[in-house]
Amino acid sequence: MSRDYGISDPTGRLRRVLVLPPDDAFAVADPSVWHYGARPDARRAAAEHRLLVEILMESGAEVVIHDDPLPDLADSVFVFDPVFMTPVGAVLLRMGKSLRRGEEAPLGDRLEQAGVPIVGRLRGPGTVEGGDLLRLDATTVVAGLGFRTDRAGCDELTRILADLGCQLHPFDLPYLGGPSACLHLRSLVSLLAPDLAVAHRALLPVRLWRLLEERYEVVDVPPEELASMGPNVLALAPRRCLVLEGSPRTRDRLRRAGCEVLSYRGDEISHKAEGGPTCLTLPLWREASA
Description:
Layout: E1 14-19, H1 24-27, H2 31-34, H3 42-58, E2 62-65, E3 83-86, E4 89-92, H4 104-113, E5 118-121, E6 133-137, E7 140-145, H5 151-162, E8 167-172, E9 189-193, E10 196-199, H6 206-215, E11 217-220, E12 234-237, E13 240-244, H7 248-256, E14 260-264, H8 267-271, H9 277-280, E15 282-286
């Protein structure tokens, strides 16, 4: 029997994806509380998100909408973080940013409504956010230990994934912007094909860099394009990717590496709120690469 969920190949063709349109909580978010660059404009944010959804649909993905009211949860638009998708279903995580606690259960309910089983839950007290998790293949996941994901959370997730035949390998992240900033592992690296990655290597842990170098050709993001989320790239299919407007040198390097590069305008939903295309989307099903 075929099914329309499960992620084993992190760069396989994206066939099904969940998003949450920016809602009232996002529109009224206090930048000083949520660490946004500025207050988002509600009308423009909604328009940007609609165009993002159009790109996903035109790429061949079914888009599942999570539109349950989530008052006071401005960051809930970044649906990638509360969940980790496995080949057999979803693991609900426990958010490290305390303001985001409460996103997990409603998202889990929406996944079950969409036919995606919940195969594990982090109970705490440790924390893990999806942005700190990077699947390399069906049995290997790396995690970034920082201000959002801690050792206790990784230990609990390790036990859950072990039962699913998968190993978790944690690596320390740099301090950089400190506790209030959002520096996830996936702020620094994304996978674009079985043999291609994009990364800002200067901030990667040496052991992780060596692991990536063994497996991938790595497109390097220049320092000036880290703030514009140059490393935050969504694979739509092997060597077909979606980027946030604003990192021209990285986009040019991706093209020279053989990628078809699509882009979206995210002045409101991304630049102001510290979340790129991988944060705004939760892939539910990818085809395995040939």
